[in-house]
Amino acid sequence: MMARPRVLLSQRLVVGPYGDQRDALEHSYVTYLESQGLVPVPVSNATRSVGDYFSDTLAGVVLTGGNDVHPRSYGSERAPTAGASEVRDRIEAALIVAALARGLPVLGLCRGMQFLNVHFGGAVTDLRHHPFGVDHRPGVNHQVVVEAEARDLLGVGRFEVNSYHDDAVTRGTLSPALKAFAWAEGTDLVEGLFHPELPVAGVQYHPERRDTVHPADTRLLEAFLHRRSFWRGGAGTKEGEG
């Protein structure tokens, strides 16, 4: 029997009641990825050797949600929120570099998409001070519009997604190395992005928090695993890239 593909998952960093730092991973990620035939392998934020998590049986890396990207990670003097974590930022940066050096795809979900944008030279926008014109309260669904080049891949030109974020990637903070493939309808908020040459992509919403799996999300995950369309890259990065 062929073993199911393994994927590495980053984790949320939380502080316990005694000031101790802990890793946390929502069960929904595991449930979702296992339902898609994958074996999730969480990576600790305490590890000193991210490379030891990689093996010949690994299919890719998933950067999960939770925690804000620390403003210092994108050169901002903005005051960090209580949940911002430079430790997690360093671990996710190491995961991206290690994955791309091995030609493995990287998929970012919510904060994971934001960090991909930061890693490639972009920034994030605080939605509390941005007139985005769409309701982004936690748990409120909204429509996204898919760019023409990604419609065949996802099988839709628009669809509904959830929203659980206070920061976002906008047209003005999008990395010059990345391209947007989905937008929150009627706004400049990026809901999906990708690297045109490397196997890197991300979405701002949470596919794992849906009541039922959306066909577009299944297609997205298949593209991630098989490096189709905007995952057609994968030659690896040069030392220091990103």
Would you mind describing this structure in some detail?
The chain has about 240 residues and is an alpha/beta fold. The chain has a single domain (about 5-230), classed as Rossmann fold (3-Layer(aba) Sandwich), CATH 3.40.50. The protein is built from 5 helices and 13 strands. The protein has helices spanning about 25-35, 85-100, 110-120, 150-155, 215-225; strands at about 5-10, 10-15, 20-25, 40, 60-65, 105-110, 125, 140-145, 160, 165-170, 180-185, 190-195, 200-205. Strand 5 (about 60-65), helix 2 and strand 6 (about 105-110) form a beta-alpha-beta unit. The chain starts with 5 loop residues before the first strand and ends in a 16-residue tail after the last helix. Residues about 235-240 have low confidence and may be disordered.
Low-confidence stretches: 234-242
The helix-and-strand class reads alpha/beta
The amount of beta strand, in percent, is 15-25%
Number of β-strand runs: 13
Number of domains: 1
How far is the N terminus from the C terminus?
A: 38 Å
Sum this structure up briefly.
This protein is α/β, with parallel strands linked by helices and 242 residues long. Helices cover 22% and strands 22% of the residues. The longest helix is centred in the middle third of the chain and has 16 residues, at 86-101.
